[in-house]
Write a structure and sequence with these properties.
Elements lengths: L5 E10 L3 H12 L4 E4 L7 H4 L31 H14 L4 E2 L6 E5 L2 E5 L3 E10 L6 E2 L13 E4 L14 E4 L3 H10 L5 E4 L5 E3 L2 E2 L2 E2 H7 L10 H7 L3 E3 L3 H8 L2 E3 L2 E5 L2 E4 L4 E3 L2 E4 L3 E2 L5 E2 L11 E2 L2 E2 L4 E3 L16 H15 L11 E2 L2
Parallel strand pairs: 1-2, 1-6, 2-3, 4-21, 6-24, 8-19, 9-10, 9-19, 10-15, 11-14
Antiparallel strand pairs: 1-25, 4-5, 5-6, 7-20, 12-13, 16-17, 17-18, 22-23
Helix pairs in contact: 1-8
The chain binds flavin-adenine dinucleotide.
The site of flavin-adenine dinucleotide has 31 residues, from helix 1 and helix 2.
């Protein structure tokens, strides 16, 4: 940081302007807390804007709302990703949330009182900080992808947009999660599609006896089971496939299923049963990694995972929001992130220092 970097002060800085950051902002605003939301992208809800065009949510509209305003339309329908982006953008506007766009945070360090939150050419001193940078950050692609020849078109599911842009020829989707299944299904209308499933996820029907799966999870209380509970512990170790199944993908959409992809050479991909396939295109639906390397505060374990209890770290005043299974299955979902946000808002309120009333004029480091 250069000596003439402008430093502003806030009681709370929220990093990330997705659903988690916005829900946090709404609750902080209602408590009269002085805060800002720093968002790296040039628009709120960037993650939803970047997802494929035909994406439909697996949660119905009744479970897609943040605190304070319902999701528009029939509560039983499944909105598109674009609708979520519009909803979140309107949400920020309606509640006049102070979202600063094009504001990527490059580091968080401990300061005398609170934290120094640095951006490229400016910084904030914040008494408390909420990191809401998302559960799906860095696309994960296995190293064997490097062994594919240049004649193969390959990309991660996070850059997939629509089927027309895919070249003709055999297409392999690698990854048996919700994204892999949905993309394979969509592409099967125009292409010969294969799906490589490394580890089977438990398929759950989207609707049972006319009601949505999440209605049952809510009514039975399963969605609220915490990582401390026996059921929560078991469920958090298991991925689930909502509304898709290997059998339906094969029978209804003609997608050929394979086991784990174990090798690649030129345009040939090999699976764990020794069979192989010549491919023109590979879509890596192989998930994401977290990247918290820019946070320079000792809150990580030996594997680089943040140590926290319901988002509260051991460094006073530093919180996380929106992590997968942060507390429950709902922690990283639109309709339930409010519960963790409310809990963190309570912690923030309890920690508010006497400095809360002090003047916060921009100052310069001498
Ligand atoms: C394909 C897919 C489908 C999904 N479908 C559903 C569904 O149907 N229903 C549901 O409830 N959930 C769904 N989810 C899960 C979850 O709701 C989303 O992943 C959601 O985007 C998470 O919101 P978030 O605000 O926690 O994180 P994000 O939406 O990822 O937002 C984080 C924000 O932080 C910003 N950021 C990152 N780093 C920095 C930095 N250093 N400085 C400043 N800003 C930064 C990013 O630009 C981003 O805007 C889905 C997820 C995926 C991947």
């Amino acid at each position: 940081m250069s000596n003439d970097t402008a430093i502003e002060q806030r009681e709370v800085v929220v990093v990330g302007g997705g659903q988690s950051g916005l829900a946090m902002g709404y609750l902080l605003g209602r408590r009269g807390i002085d805060f800002t939301i720093l968002e790296a992208a040039d628009a709120p809800a960037a993650a939803w804007r970047g997802r494929w065009d035909s994406l439909r949510l697996f949660t119905p509209a009744r479970y897609d709302a943040l605190p304070g305003v319902t999701f528009p339309g029939d509560p039983d329908r499944y909105p598109t990703g674009d609708e979520v982006a519009v909803y979140l953008t309107d949400y920020a506007r309606r509640f006049e949330l102070p979202v600063e766009l094009d504001s990527r945070v490059t580091s968080i360090t401990k300061a005398d009182r609170g934290y120094l939150v640095e951006l490229d050419h400016r910084a904030y001193l914040a008494e408390q900080v909420v990191v809401a940078t998302g559960p799906f950050q860095v696309p994960r692609v296995p190293v064997l992808a490097e062994r594919l020849g240049p004649e193969v078109v390959q990309f991660h599911s996070s850059v997939y947009r629509e089927p027309d842009a895919i070249p003709a020829g055999t297409l392999l989707v690698v990854g048996g999660g919700n994204s892999g299944f949905q993309i394979a299904q969509e592409l099967s209308a125009l292409h010969e599609v294969h799906l490589s499933i490394g580890s089977r996820q438990t398929p759950l029907p989207q609707r049972i006896l006319g009601r949505d799966l999440f209605w049952y999870l809510e009514k039975t209380g399963l969605i609220y089971k915490t990582t401390d509970s026996r059921i929560g512990r078991r469920a958090s170790g298991r991925e689930t496939l909502v509304g898709s199944s290997p059998r339906a993908l094969r029978r209804r959409y003609g997608v050929e299923l394979h086991g784990r992809t174990v090798d690649a050479a030129g345009s040939t991909v090999t699976f764990d049963d020794g069979t192989s396939l010549d491919v023109r295109t590979v879509v890596w639906a192989t998930g994401f990694e977290l990247d918290h390397s820019w946070i320079d505060v000792p809150i990580f374990d030996d594997n680089g995972r943040v140590v926290h209890r319901r988002g509260v770290t051991q460094s006073p005043g530093l919180y996380f929001l929106g992590l997968t299974w942060q507390h429950t299955r709902g922690s990283a979902l639109l309709g339930w992130v409010k519960d963790d946000a409310e809990y963190i808002a309570q912690q923030i309120t309890a920690n508010r220092s006497v400095a809360a009333g002090e003047s916060r004029k921009p100052e310069r480091v001498a």
